[in-house]
Specification:
Layout lengths: L1 E2 L3 E6 L2 E6 L4 E5 L1 H9 L7 H9 L3 E2 L6 H16 L2 E6 L24 H13 L5 E6 L8 H14 L3 E9 L6 H10 L3 E6 L3 H7 L10 H14 L4 E8 L4 H12 L7 E7 L20 H10 L22 E4 L4 E3 L13 E2 L4 E2 L2 H10 L5 H4 L12 H9 L13 H10 L15
Helix pairs in contact: 4-5, 5-6
């Protein structure tokens, strides 16, 4: 028997603890037990406690050291290459009604879907013979500029293909939501909408204003969110509050707006880290909050009344980069593998017109060289609670000489200690029983 590589032993203020990232078992333990586990002297354990430690995955047989890793890899490969489910992100337009100064789209000649492209989308889906179910994400630009086309595509997918639409979400700035748009949401059966704002009104209106007129947008967006929550109470509304070092308190204020009333129970504000590259593009600029700083940020929020649960949890691996049946369809029918690639001609990897793949070297690098299953991940003690990080950041580090952090914040043991010790006693993942000799 050996101590599982996913077992983390630590001390704090004269007390002793263990955490296992596979079973999510967390407990204070006695000093005597800490010493036994640290020294691997299993013969000093009572039989009952020895069995309990095996049951919770704290100690394992030596030949089972990487069993969880290989089980996860097998499930991942089965899902990535053998799934009968397709994830499609459809961008009916790259145009937008906003003129945010940081946006790249105006420089890339915004385009919109045509009837001919819609015909090809239906043909493309029908040509995926092995696929039985589809999830849809409507993306842009601002997809609601093409609300009628979204409704048309949905109706035709329902009536002209045999694929079952399992789930739908839409990513929007929410400015164009009105009674007609809400009727479309109901008609297509939208499950979730993600709405982005740039902080409180004062800050948001400096960067998110209407194209051509500079008209502020915050008040109308807030009114539209209220209307949407009232008329579609079953809809999940995720409110992404874009933050960096300069406006992190904006999230606290937005949270207070939406989490103190029962009628807002289906609106979920969350902090969205603004990711801006430093000069040279090989790392994040200083004002961007690095993912490695998330635990400190969440503790900061909790101290200000935000009820964020950041107790570690098991996470699935990978992103659409590594999945053979996940693509973004651009407004002209071009195919991409990453959100960040949309509108970049040199990153197109295929077309729905011919159902063939182009730019093969990039596609293969995406699918096989950006995997969250490498030797470093295999040996990592927080592998079960890491999602593998952003595949695009892996790509940029590996092939473009960048130095982005993409691992779990919990890889830093001090971060993990802070998260575990700050977790509330009410957290169902946290054991109240203490293991002692």
């Amino acid at each position: 028997m050996i101590l599982s590589i996913y077992t983390f032993l630590f001390t704090e203020n004269g007390r002793y603890y263990l955490f296992n990232s596979e079973s999510l078992y967390f407990s204070e333990i006695s000093e005597d037990l800490y010493e036994i586990l640290y020294n691997n002297t299993w013969d000093e354990l009572p039989e009952e406690l020895f069995s309990e430690l095996k049951e919770k995955g704290i100690i394992v047989k030596r030949e089972e050291k990487f069993t969880f890793y290989y089980d996860s890899l097998t499930r991942f490969l089965t899902d990535a290459y053998g799934s009968k489910h397709m994830s499609l992100i459809i961008a009916p337009t790259t145009g937008c009604n906003f003129e945010c100064p940081y946006c790249f789209e105006p420089k890339k000649n915004p385009r919109s879907v045509t009837k001919e492209t819609i015909d090809k989308i239906i043909d493309y889906v029908n040509n995926q013979k092995e696929i039985e179910t589809v999830s849809l994400t409507w993306y842009g630009g601002e997809p609601l500029l093409m609300a009628a086309e979204i409704e048309t595509i949905h109706k035709r997918l329902k009536s002209e293909t045999e694929k079952k639409i399992q789930y739908q979400e839409l990513i929007s700035n929410a400015y164009l939501i009105d009674d007609h748009v809400i009727a479309i949401f109901k008609e297509i059966g939208l499950d979730r909408i993600q709405i982005s704002i740039d902080g409180i009104k004062e800050n948001h209106d400096k960067t998110r204003f209407l194209k051509g007129t500079g008209t502020p947008t915050f008040d109308r967006i807030m009114a539209n969110i209220e209307k949407l929550a009232e008329t579609m109470p079953e809809l999940d509304i995720s409110l992404r509050v874009n933050i960096n070092r300069n406006n992190r308190d904006d999230f606290v204020k937005i949270y207070e707006m939406f989490r103190n009333e029962e009628r807002h129970r289906k609106i979920y504000p969350y902090p969205g880290l603004i990711r801006e590259d430093a000069t040279g593009g090989n790392k994040l600029c200083y004002s961007s909050i690095n993912p490695s700083e998330l635990v400190g940020l969440y503790i900061y929020f909790r101290q200000r009344g935000v009820n964020l649960d950041f107790f570690p949890r098991r996470r699935s691996k990978g992103c659409m980069l590594q999945r053979s049946s996940a693509f973004i369809i651009g407004p002209e029918g071009e195919l991409y593998k990453c959100w960040n690639d949309v509108s970049s001609h040199d990153k197109v990897i295929g077309s729905i017109a011919d159902n063939r793949r182009h730019n093969y070297p990039r596609l293969m690098r995406y699918m096989h060289e950006c995997s969250p299953f490498d030797e470093e991940c295999k040996q990592c003690f927080v592998f079960p609670i890491c999602d593998g990080g952003c595949g695009m950041l892996r790509y940029r580090n590996k092939f473009e000489g960048s130095d982005f952090f993409y691992c779990s914040a919990f890889r830093d043991k001090e971060n993990l200690k802070r998260a575990l010790l700050s977790s509330t006693e009410e957290n169902p993942n946290k054991e109240k029983k203490q293991l002692r000799l």
